[in-house]
């Protein structure tokens, strides 16, 4: 029950305050990681250097988070609990998903393609300068579904496993995967550790997220899409999440997208009509309801375990 209460507290702080406008810890971590990469990602032995870089970037900060929780608990039990909740707040991104994605839907409804393209370019790596409304809506829905797992549910899972330090470990590892986990000349070797670690840490959360999307949406379609489409997607974890989410919403995602001036044909996901502005709101609703479901399930599990232990 304590884990559920602290989790609800962290989510509640995020919902009320949103992401920090200044001095966001993850932004600072990104700059730190960039500095490490520029220094180490050169010459021979890049796989080994990438492993060392990952350890330098992640392990000391995770250890610091664990020390802060332990020290806070020694000073005052409530202080220790508060540190866990604050660490979750710094790691989770539920409110930021809403704040970044729903304005895209509004811009599309207003017929303001220029603004919609600009807003979408801030959250995806694809080129949006020539994107039309369905392409922008598709990009936004894909981002919501995938980042629902990366920024919310993976963080909640590891918080349930290991408290604030678990959330920090996952979020830092996930951030490094987003920065270094590319299959290109620059990062193919150096980013191996970042990509593989994120695959491992995200394996269970991604499948729980996909299951949750299926339960809360069109369950039959979500399950069918998950089973038939997930394996074709490049990421072993994004595949289940996005295929199940697209099926749950009964929309079509994937397909052509422009990256660095070239059209990339990605596997199709989901089933139904192409994504629209209204589907962005539906995708956000699915993510928000999934968060509520997780909080309720964890609280119920804590209550059940507590009752059993006192029986």
Description:
One of its GO terms (molecular function) is ABC-type vitamin B12 transporter activity. It is a multi-pass membrane protein. There is one protein chain. The protein is mainly alpha-helical. The protein has one domain. Helix content is 74%, strand content 6%. It contains eleven helices and three strands; from the N terminus they run ααααααααααβββα. A three-stranded mixed β-sheet has the order 2-1-3. Strand 1 (251-259) and strand 2 (262-270) form a beta hairpin. The chain is globular, with a radius of gyration of 20 Å.
CA-CA gap between termini = 16 Å
| Mean pLDDT level | 94
Indicate the radius of gyration in whole angstroms. Answer: 20 Å
The amount of helix comes to: over 70%
Strand percentage lies at 5-15%
Oligomer: single chain
**Order of the strands making up the biggest sheet:** 2-1-3
Question: Helical stretch count?
Answer: 11
Low-confidence stretches: none
Number of separate domains = 1
The main pleated sheet reads as:
3 strands, mixed
Structural class: mainly alpha
Q: What does the overall shape look like? A: globular
Order of helices and strands: HHHHHHHHHHEEEH
Number of strands: 3
Protein name: Cobalamin biosynthesis protein CobD
Keywords: Cell membrane, Cobalamin biosynthesis, Membrane, Transmembrane, Transmembrane helix
Transmembrane segments: 51-71, 78-97, 151-173, 286-305
InterPro entries: Cobalamin_biosynth_CobD/CbiB (IPR004485)
